[in-house]
Each structure stands twice: as structure tokens, then as C-alpha cells.
Specification:
about 350 residues; mainly alpha
Length: about 350
């Protein structure tokens, strides 16, 4: 009996011990793991759905908004010639302008969803083709400027925050605020007057506008395009880098008082390592948002800067289309501009969990 009792006692204690070990942690891991597994897909689905709704709103807004612009595109297509009412009616029927507004809207939405943005009035060419021709020029200009002002803003913003209150911080912050408040077209005109036209005995060093001088080939063509690229890129960098600097500086200042930085210093890490490995990565979330917004704007281009420097990109094309008004081209460009920004914002939301695991749970 002693042996049986001992066996029963051991079996009972084993079963009792095994019960909590098996049920407790396993049960605890199951629901938490399930929630973690389903939370991020739901987060992604919500962001994608929000982007789709935003794109639909842009599609609707773009159609009705640009029809408020004064001007008759049919009269523009006649080149100012005196034409009869019958001829004007033929033009309106040709481009579908004689249809009721609701029918024009449904036709526009149906074609846009299939990638057909219509035919430009002034160029008599598909809008998609005109956008494809101008897009590389815009990406060259705004993409170059984007890389420069992003790197410059992050580096100077980090240094300004880390040396908060010193002369360098005050100088860079004041300069960034001043340049960021300047209208880009005014700064561009100022650079043209001083560095293109020249002042007094100082000759002009750069072209006044355009993308190329013509007649160049090979490496000489690359140098020529780079020469034309200098002033518009300088204009964009001067105006835009301040925003990145201020956002990076503000985010890093919020992190500098955190306990984990004090602990890192107490462990003997150099100040440079504390900044690069601990403070900056945790302060990058607002900067990442701004970077993706600016990345979306590289497709949209900068209308005023491209117009001032006669750069043959999407911004200049948009300005030409507004002056008519060339409704299919304006609507198509507006949709592309907005879609680029919406896409980049959505991508920024989707990569947030890589920087902060709490996002998306």
C-alpha cells in the first residue's frame, strides 16, 4: 500500500504539475500569437482600402474641379479663327463635350480605370503618351533634388539637435526657416537674374532655362544637361531641405531625454555611437513619413520651378494644359500626381512596423 500510495502520490503530483505547464503557457501563446498574426494583415487591408477611397475621391474631384476653369477648349482648338456654330458643334461632338455631364463623368471614370486617360485637345495625342514623354525629365530634376535635400536635411537636422542651443544649431535652424519660407518661383527668378543673366561685370554662368542647348551628343550631351540642371536643382534643394531638417531636429530632440540614452552613455558608449545607433533610428519615424511624401512629389514635380526654368517636365506640361484648358490632359496629370502621393503615403504606413513594432498591432 505504501508503494501504491507513493505511486498514486507521484502520479497525482506529476499530473497536477503537467496541467498548468501545458495549459497555461500554451493557452497564453495561442491567443496572443493569433492576434499578432491577424493584426498586421488587417492593418495592411485598412491602409490599402483607405488609399483606394482616396484615389476614388481624387478621380471625382479632378473631373468636376477643372470644369470650373474659365475658357472654352473648343474655341482654342479652332486657333482663334472665325468658325460657324455648326463647326463648333462638330468639335464638341468629336470630343464628347456635347454629352450630359453625368455621362461625360461615367465615360471618364470607366476609361480611367482601364488606363485610358483620353486624348489631349492641344496635342491631339493620347494623354498617357504625353505623360510618358515628360515623366523622365521630371524624375531627373526632382529625383536629383530629392536625394540632395533629404541627405542634407537629415545630416544637418541630426547635428543641430545633438548640439542644441549652440551657434551651429541656431545658424542652421534660422537659415532653414528663412529658405523654407521663400517662394520657389521667386528664388528661381533671383538665381536666373544673378547667375544666368549676370549682374554688372559678373557674367552669366548658367543657362536661363530649358533642358539642353541642342547639337550635343555622347558625354558632351550629359554635361550640357547637367549644366542646365544646376539652377533648378539648387532652387529645389534650398527651399525643401529646411523642412526635412526641422522635422528631423524636432524628432531627435524629443528622444534625447529618454532613459535608454542615459543607460547607453552609462555603459561607456561614445557619444557618436549613442547618436547613430540609438537616438537617430528611434527618431526617424516622422522623417520617414516626410521622405515618402516628398518621394511621391518627385513624380508630381514642381510646377512653378519647371515653369520658371522652362523645364520640359510634367509640371510645365500641367501649366500648358491649364492655360487652354486641356481637360483630358489636366485631369490625367492631376490623377497621376495624386496617385503618386497616395501610393507613397500608403507605402510609408506599411513599413512603419519595421521602425516601430507597436504600429500595426
Amino acid at each position: 500500500m505504501t508503494s501504491d500510495a507513493t505511486s498514486a502520490s507521484v502520479g497525482g503530483s506529476t499530473g497536477a504539475a503537467a496541467g498548468p505547464v501545458q495549459d497555461g503557457p500554451a493557452a497564453g501563446r495561442g491567443p496572443r500569437g493569433g492576434r499578432a498574426t491577424t493584426a498586421y494583415p488587417r492593418y495592411v487591408a485598412g491602409k490599402v482600402a483607405g488609399a483606394a477611397v482616396s484615389l476614388l475621391a481624387v478621380l471625382i474631384t479632378g473631373f468636376f474641379l477643372f470644369r470650373l476653369i474659365p475658357g472654352d477648349p473648343v474655341k482654342f482648338m479652332t486657333g482663334g479663327r472665325q468658325v460657324s456654330a455648326e463647326q463648333l458643334a462638330v468639335y464638341r461632338e468629336q470630343f464628347g463635350l456635347d454629352l450630359p455631364l453625368w455621362q461625360q463623368f461615367t465615360d471618364y471614370c470607366g476609361k480611367a480605370l482601364t488606363g485610358d486617360l483620353g486624348t489631349s485637345y492641344q496635342f491631339n495625342a493620347p494623354v498617357v503618351d504625353k505623360i510618358s514623354e515628360a515623366l523622365p525629365n521630371t524624375l531627373l530634376l526632382t529625383g536629383t533634388a530629392f536625394v540632395l535635400y533629404t541627405v542634407l536635411g537629415i545630416v544637418l537636422g541630426t547635428r543641430s539637435a545633438w548640439r542644441h542651443g549652440r551657434f551651429g544649431d541656431r545658424f542652421h535652424t534660422g537659415l532653414a526657416l528663412t529658405l523654407y519660407s521663400l517662394p520657389s518661383f521667386w528664388l528661381g527668378l533671383l538665381l536666373i537674374v544673378t547667375l544666368s543673366v549676370g549682374i554688372g561685370p559678373l557674367p552669366g554662368l548658367f543657362p536661363t532655362g530649358g533642358m539642353e542647348s541642342g547639337g550635343e551628343a555622347g558625354f558632351a550631351y550629359v554635361v550640357d544637361v547637367a549644366h542646365h540642371l544646376v539652377l533648378p536643382v539648387v532652387t529645389l534643394v534650398a527651399v525643401e531641405y529646411g523642412q526635412t531638417l526641422l522635422v528631423t531636429r524636432s524628432a531627435l530632440l524629443d528622444e534625447m531625454g529618454s532613459d535608454y540614452l542615459t543607460t547607453a552613455r552609462a555603459k561607456g558608449l561614445r557619444d557618436d555611437l549613442v547618436r547613430r545607433r540609438h537616438a537617430v533610428p528611434n527618431a526617424l519615424l516622422p522623417t520617414v513619413t516626410l521622405i515618402f511624401i516628398n518621394l511621391g512629389r518627385t513624380v508630381a514635380g514642381v510646377i512653378l520651378v519647371e515653369t520658371v526654368f522652362s523645364w520640359p517636365g510634367l509640371g510645365g506640361l500641367f501649366y500648358q494644359a491649364l492655360s487652354v484648358p486641356d481637360l483630358p490632359l489636366v485631369q490625367g496629370l492631376f490623377l497621376v500626381f495624386a496617385a503618386a502621393v497616395i501610393l507613397m503615403n500608403t507605402l510609408a504606413d506599411l513599413i512603419y512596423p519595421l521602425f516601430d513594432p507597436r504600429v500595426g498591432r
